[in-house]
Amino acid sequence: MVDSRLPASYMMPGTSSFADFLAGQAPDLLPARRTVPQGHAGDLVPHGTTIVAATFPGGVVMAGDRRATMGNIIAQRDIEKVFPADEYSCVGIAGSAGLAVELVRLFQTELEHYEKIEGMTLSLDGKANRLAGLIRSNLGMAMQGLAVVPLFAGYDLAAGQGRIFSYDVTGGRYEETAFYSVGSGSLFARGSLKKLYRDDLSEDDCVTAVVQALYDAADDDSATGGPDLTRRIFPVVQVVTAEGGRRFADSEVAQIADAVIAGRMNRPDGPAAALT
């Protein structure tokens, strides 16, 4: 007769970190424990590119383009790079796409496991710190070119506002003010948001601003994909407020993207900002 009971280690009280539990019971399942060939492996895998986030008085918006590249090749035209982390936060990925998606899934499980074990959700700072630990565990891979550099954002219920956190490959965590972007087109996206961002943006205006920023990034960075009108592929947009997070429907994003492109027909460089 086969014993179908779980091993005793699964029934013992222990850490609220799923990643720590996995490291003890099945470390080979952790993304960072995989072995890769010696040398620089970054050019052998698809890479995700530009992610943009911006706050508005009621929360935070995060958006990502849909292109993945492998060297000078477009590896995928409709990859998704922005995901809900839990009910009140979201995460966008840049870097090695496969590892990044796996890290996001581990992060989602980490937050869900903590909530089940502790009976409460982590604070937004706690979530940001947990993600930093997961990135830090991938440092060996990053040194071989398989870096994962996410952008994390959420609504802080205690502070009553949206917040944005960026990271480096060593797991360094940095809180950003108002808006931020990561990925190959981030320089151009941030330059665009400097022109368009205001503290009093509505939710819809904030979404329009980040779509404009992604358009500007795609205009100057070949690895960032702009709205694909022929295939009807548009950025993924996630909004998080006090009511929780929701993904904008493709039809909603398409409507905003169509309006942005229509405006660019008359002014290719985008809307102008006031000088004062």
Question: What topology does this entry show?
Answer:
Layout (H helix, E strand, L loop, with lengths): L17 H8 L21 E2 L2 E6 L2 E6 L3 E3 L2 E4 L5 E5 L2 E4 L2 E2 H22 L5 H13 L2 H5 L7 E6 L4 E7 L5 E4 L2 E4 L3 H11 L6 H18 L15 E6 L2 E4 L2 H17 L10
Antiparallel strand pairs: 1-4, 1-8, 2-3, 2-12, 3-13, 4-5, 6-7, 7-9, 9-10, 10-11, 13-14
Overview of the molecule:
- A hairpin with a 2-residue loop joins strand 4 (68-70) and strand 5.
- Helix 2 (97-118) crosses helix 3 (124-136) and helix 5 (186-196) crosses helix 6 (203-220).
- With 276 residues, the chain is α+β, with helices and mostly antiparallel strands.
- It has a single domain (42-266), classed as Glutamine Phosphoribosylpyrophosphate, subunit 1, domain 1 (4-Layer Sandwich), CATH 3.60.20.10.
- The strands form 3 sheets. Strands 12-2-3-13-14 form a 5-stranded antiparallel beta sheet, with helices on one face. The chain has a 5-stranded antiparallel beta sheet with strand order 6-7-9-10-11.
- It starts with 17 loop residues before the first helix and ends in a 10-residue tail after the last helix.
- The chain has helices at 18-25, 97-118, 124-136, 139-143, 186-196, 203-220, 250-266, and strands at 47-48, 51-56, 59-64, 68-70, 73-76, 82-86, 89-92, 95-96, 151-156, 161-167, 173-176, 179-182, 236-241, 244-247.
